[in-house]
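User: Predict the full complex structure for these chains.
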Amino acid sequence: MIFNMEFETLPREALEAIQLRRLKEVVGRVYATVPFYRKAFDEAGVKPADIKSLADITKLPFTTKKDLRDNYPFGMFAVPMENVVRIHASSGTTGQPTVVGYTRRDVDTWAELMARSLAAGGATPDDIIHNAYGYGLFTGGLGVHYGAEKLGASVIPISGGNTKRQIIIMRDFKPSILTCTPSYALHLAEAAEEMGVDFENLLFKSGIFGAEPWSENMRLEIERKLYLSALDIYGISEVIGPGVAMECLEAKNGLHIFEDHFIPEIINPETGEILPPGSTGELVFTSLTKEAFPIIRYRTRDITSLSYEPCICGRTMARMKRVQGRTDDMLIIRGVNVFPSQIEAVLMDMDQVEPHYQLVVEREGTLDTLTVLVEVGEKAFSDEIRDLQNLEREISHNIKETLAVSAKVKLVEPKTIARSEGKAVRVVDKRKL
Amino acid sequence: MHAQQISVFLENKAGRLAEVTNVLSQSGVNIRALSLADTSDFGILRLIVNNNDAAVDALKNAGFTVRKTQVAAVEVPDRPGGLHELLEYLNGRGINVEYMYAFVTPTKNNALMIFRFDDTDAAVSALLEKGFAVIDGETLYTM
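Assistant: Here is the predicted structure of the two-chain assembly.
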């Protein structure tokens, strides 16, 4: 179902006319109200009046995570606090948190985008949405919540954690849409199995999973274990939160970016150079309609590519591929670029192993070593040492074949790899550079 | 004439073996025999216990990866060459031993050994044919 038929199916020409009008408006506004942007534009020698076409966006300087941190907490806000009705913040696990604000209209825009996303994932006003994204400073919980209400669906604001209770609610309330991180979806499947609850007997039709990178194989595993259609949603708090882009149920092939509100670009992360459609690089976003926290050419550090091919669902918006990694997750091991998602894909291709893994990078002398910890589930466990050693060798061989990097594989006991209710810890970098 | 053995995957780190014995003692399971095979990273603990179901449930609930394996408990003459005769015989019949370990019993003149064969059925019938005593599971667990 298409929630906003008028905007989601705009002919490209009309869409681009709207984008240009909005771009000029937002550039003028941030120049006038945010000292950081005024200084950055002045240093780059660009004035709002220089933006005459969409291509002129490249004249504007990039904004980085560091810029947001330097302006902690409210330095990037473009409206007085009296107009801000909501504040969210990133977890700050990689340093100082980044803080974002929303006006009443921003909250409404976000709800509209999440309603579009939920509808693209098959939700209707008749559905019950089990929302297991965390409620709080994290944008996931409240983002889905407001979108679900906008759509008119019934939302269970269960939030993250207390997994046993989640399973009981699922069994008793029979929700039809699940929203959570993909790793938590698998965690729910494990917990349900331990509690003797079979997802086959629940009424889920689709699941909308995001907030961490996952893979095509993980999609298949979730679909098999949870008996639902698993869809990918994208959003980061710096841009608005979940609902920046969403896969459609019809094609399940790339996430439609809601381009009437955001302009996406793909750049070479090393040089900043713009890459043509179809090329893989770092995703950059400019927000077009946000009032409290507009963002200009924000470097997301997410690696993906864009496609402007028409989609069978009827939406005319560009599609981004599933995020393939992050520029800062990218490990360079003996000169080879390695993304945790690639290791995951290798593991998911092997029937015997579960996709519960962790990469440990160490430096011995001047040489980097990669150790991949893989949990041994019942499928993989043989009573014989030889079989387990063969399994280690096979995983190591497959990693070498796919990634061209040597890795030592170490089998570990189940559930020993930290699997938080939110995001799994996939990389431990012990190198002291 | 088969016996069930429980195999547990263990990482080579401090306290894991004690955790297994803790779980088993908490659930009232008595260990009859055990053997530990290990590499530098991990090990496999093989156990003969008095109550397989209780042991498997308790270990799984504690988060261990566990499986049941079919083995045979065979009486071996307790004299020089006793084990050798048995192995020589099986070798002649083309049956392979994957691993084996001793079962401690304070009885009789025979030693009792646990064998994991590549083909348990063939091994057991060959042994019985030759007159070796193979102890069935139920007897074994309560010995």
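The CA atoms of residues 251 and 311 of chain A lie 7 Å apart.
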